[in-house]
Amino acid sequence: MNETIKLSSGGSMPILGLGTWLSSNEDELTAALKTALDSGYRLIDTAFIYHNEAVIGKVLQEYFKSGKLKRADIFITTKFDTLAKFQLPFTAHAPEDVEKCFNMQLEALQLDYVDLYLIHCPVPVQVYL
User: Fold this and answer.
1) Which residues are catalytic?
2) Cα separation of 77 and 113, whole Å?
3) Topology annotation, domain 4-119
4) What gap in Å lies between CA 13 and CA 19, rounded to an integer?
5) Checking DSSP bridges between strand 4-6 and strand 12-14, what pairing results, if any?
6) Which residues contact 80 (CB under 8 A, 6 or more apart)?
7) What was the pLDDT predicted at 54?
8) Neighbours of 68 (CB within 10 A)
9) CB < 8 Å & 24+ apart, contacts of 50-53
């Protein structure tokens, strides 16, 4: 479970992680996260649209406070999603929207940073003036 790949930045990323899509039931997700973390999973993938970042943050804080894990042990991936956050179309990726969404997600996850932040369902668009 501890296999990682080296990134061009010099950091490393686990090659296997826990995806949390369709995991919005708090009790089920809490049990799944604890089982995964206790089994050695160190990458957790989420997104705002999954409606589970607060549960993930709660479980992670429990592990950090108990000393079972340190923040540096975990690789967190989440995604920017204008549709879910602001009821905007997928083409609304203005910098101020990204920053606002990112800060809301950090708060829900109870983290100071995430390791990978992606655009969820990026849609290219050509603007005609």
Assistant:
1) 50
2) 10
3) TIM Barrel (3.20.20)
4) 15
5) antiparallel
6) 48, 93, 98, 101, 102, 117, 118, 119, 120
7) 96
8) 12
9) 50/20, 50/21, 50/22, 50/23, 50/24, 51/24, 52/20, 52/23, 52/24, 53/78, 53/105, 53/108, 53/109
What is the torsional sign of CA 104, 23, 83, 125? positive
- What average pLDDT does the segment 46-66 reach? 95
pLDDT at 109: 98
Which residue stretches of 1-129 are H helix? 26-38, 53-66, 82-86, 95-109
Q: Is 22 left (phi over 0), alpha (psi -120 to 50) or beta?
A: left
Note whether 114 and 105 are within 8 A (CB): yes
Q: What is the pLDDT of residues 35-52, one digit of tens each?
A: 999 999 999 999 988 889
What confidence category does residue 111 fall into, taking pLDDT thresholds of 50, 70 and 90?
very high
Cβ pair 125, 89 in contact under 8 A: no
Q: Is the pLDDT of residue 83 over 80?
A: no
Contact at 8 Å (CB) between 54 and 73? Answer: no
96 pLDDT more than 80: no
